[in-house]
Amino acid sequence: MTTWLGLNAGHRDRATADRIAVSLYETLLFHAQLVCVHEVEDRHAMSFRLADQPSENTVSTLIERGYGVAVHDGSLRLLAGPEELTRGALRAALAHRDRREGRALRFPGQRTLRGRYGVSDIIAFSAIEEVLPHGTKSVDARGDLQPTFVNGRLVLHCG
Prior knowledge:
This protein is an alpha+beta fold.
């Protein structure tokens, strides 16, 4: 069962939100399949796609750290933390669930993309579903690709 975890700490700075999202992935939410950052009300919130619901201990830790937390697995399971942050957390979780918006910082197949790859290989071996502009032949991956959700698809914009 897929679960989407939305987190919001009201970060104004995109780079800070990116750094914290990756740090949470590397420490507390390492089982996440996809990690995104979303623009929510002139702030940056995060979302994580998980195979299972986060443990009570994980959720408690996030709330103690001051995050607004939303857990959604097809229906809303939990909305917790500071009230002024929970709406943004829920918006991030729903945007990720609906593949409507969000910049992916970690995604399936990302670690294998080091160096220059043809577009067909990127699409075949990663979660990226489209590369724009159309006609792009290859991409220098360097491991820092950040595709975004556009109309339900994970799209990499080049150049």
